[in-house]
Write a structure and sequence with these properties.
With about 900 residues, this protein is α/β, with parallel strands linked by helices. Helix content is about 50%, strand content about 15%. It binds a DNA duplex (9 and 15 nucleotides) through α25, α27, β16, α32 and α33.
Amino acid sequence: MDKLIIIDGNSIANRAFYALPLLSNSSGLHTNAVYGFTTMLLKLIEEEKPTHFLVAFDAGKITFRHKEYTEYKGGRAKTPSELSEQFPLIKELLKAFKIPQFELTGYEADDIIGTLTKAADEKGEKVLLVSGDKDMLQLASEHVTVAITRKGISEVDLYNPAEIKEKYGLTPAQIIDLKGLMGDTSDNIPGIPGVGEKTALKMLHEFGTVEEVLANAASLKGKMKEKVEEHAQSAMMSKELATIFREVPMETEWDVFRYDGFDGQALSSMFRKLEFKSLLEKMDFGPSVVEEGQAVESLEAVVVTENNMEELIGKIGDNAAIHVEAIGENPHQAVMVGVVWFTFDGETNTSYFVPIALLKSEAGEPLRTWLSDDTKKKQLFDQHRAQLVLAWQGVQLRGVDFDALLAAYLLDPTESNLSLSGLTGKYGLPGVKTDEEVFGKGAKFRMPELEALSDHLGRKAMAIARIVPVLREELEKSEMHSLFYELELPLAGVLAEMELRGIALDAEGLKAFGVELASKLDAIMTRIYNLAGVEFNINSPKQLGEILFEKLGLPAWKKTKTGYSTDAEVLERLAPHHEVVGEILNYRSLAKLQSTYVEGLLKEVRPETGKVHTYYRQTIAATGRLSSQFPNLQNIPIRLEEGRKIRKVFVPSEPGWYMLAADYSQIELRVLAHISQDDNLKEAFLQNMDIHTKTAMDVFGVEESAVDANMRRQAKAVNFGIVYGISDYGLSQNLDITRRDAAQFIEQYFAVFQGVRKYMDEIVKDARRDGYVTTLLQRRRYLPEITASNFNLRSFAERTAMNTPIQGTAADIIKLAMVQMADRLKQDGLKSRMLLQVHDELVFEVPEEELETMRRVVPEVMAGALKLDVPLSADVDFGLTWYDAK
DNA sequence: GGTTTCACG
DNA sequence: ACGTACGTGAAACCC
């Protein structure tokens, strides 16, 4: 069976351009739209296996539509040059793919596509039409499936007439009427002002077409009636403009579009020119780096032996780039391979590789001493990981004065490829192979021969030596020098110490809790099967959806991309309809505790010590927060009592000691008060008021005594919204109120917290002007999408601009407190140990005799970590377990 | 490997 | 008009 794929070229190029960050190759050519286009083509070829293929483009500027309506597509921002310069590249790319392209003066791509799909319908040929434009839905038919890109370009929603009916309640032809009524700002099609999708759909469900809606205008009510009557002509014209012309005089001979595969050679050279490294590798087009006549930089990669160790370590000097290689994601369990250092004597690049066995042997002593000598300065890529790996081998690492990973993260915390090979590419330095290239991955993992290994690791150390001065200068330029040297670099060491110490778990207690859960789960499961009348896998959202919405016929109102949604929000609304739903909710919460917190945590306990050692990631979160892995100890349950009990198994590691926890009170709103300088908010904290009650008083305009629990709850939600970068929609969802009411709340809030409104406006403007926002300590986050024309992307960036300085400054502050606290414990010779950080909370284990001291010192250090214009405050408590330290 | 759900701040 | 609250990690399904 033949299958023709038609791509709406301009539409897909646009979507790709706005969906992807503005990539460019080393000669400054922008390539993001070409890249997106390419990945889409490859995916379609692989998944759809078309026998025929074509891409249609708009030709020129003036089409017949302009003759009828001169404003057509007026007011549309003109295509940015970064995109228009990519069209010739896309056309060249299509030649390499050997995919026919069509454009016709005076017609849009839509019309070409309309004509071809009509021909396909008549012939009964199968067509997949790919576009980013929902207008295309009007072309769907028995033979024509329309794929509309969703969120970026890698995913599409497929529509045939049945699905359009299901989603909109319309036939494909009525899509034209829909646009006639609601118009389309991006094409400057007016429609009827004030009529959006909701209203338009309602009218079409009742009357069917624009003509019928106009004919029945008299039966409409109030304002709507006026509007429809007043803009009747506009609606008719809009419908006409939205109608795709399907009679373009053109060749529709099928064989012209036959697709028989791409020209590998042309494609490979195209990818090289565009520097699509990942695609070159994926397509097996050979090495991604083109060596321009110049040989790979020479490196003398020496393997150190027990005989020459003494002599070679003498050459290392007081300063070197070093690298610690270990295999495995979790540094507490990774298998160490060895250490390598790099030197340059003015002539020769040399690296020295010390395999793990040698490092640990007697002969390894000089290197071990050098590594732990604070006066020997080291530059690394990922000190934190190296320190952990070495520590588990009994080797201390001291004297790190630069960390390339940490620096690259600060320079761009959203960079997704923070690998050494990724960064050398990004900063235009001689590249290194990726670990995947050298080691392979998954089942294909192989340790290379000693020589190749030593060369690869040596090149890593060389790359570190090369990239360090570049990153140092960049940090200076972006004023993150102090943030790096005074906060992040010392923190790396503090984190490593906390993690190595670990936290003790009462494994027996946890197992007992698991047994209890198992019997409860068993009972619930039986009840669910009885109530549902059938046994099924409750953990499978697919099976659960079928039971609830098909077998039991409960109302489904929310969908996921694969089927019915069965999340807690849905189930809570269904609970009154059927007894089984409450049981399922209960089952879900207990099953989560069992699998993630009982079984998951037990898997991470070291049997020798009874401890878990989390790994805090310092270079993941875009806001500057830490994250925690293997296990994640930042999401241990607390909100529900049943889950909170998990905290009872987190215990001190020494008899007679206590757990002590201290958390910041309202740190984000205090930070907001400081950076916005809002008088009212500042005053509230200076007076040490309950901030949610205060907000309720101001928003509802009542006395403190008149604030009831519900008002406080709503005010609390507003405060959360403010911190997240408020929108009326978000607040309405959270409070389950109408958008109008949510908007009213927000307006009320801003009326009394005018400084906050001013901050929100200014920070978005600043982000547009600078392209980034910063925290109090100059941590930076770039927001390229702040200028996007796509509403969703832009709005997201705007909320991020509001939220990141708040969340990020709070992260700065607790990090400061951690570094200061670690110093303080050492200075004062305290035995207490810092164990955990949970964003606004620090957890310690404390010997009894230090309890009084720590209860005083911890909140004092936390509150004093950074001086703001409002006081910071931390609450502290202690007990025999983490549960009791509340 | 992607998707869904849910735990935390 | 558009349609999401900000930041994470882990487990279970299912292809």
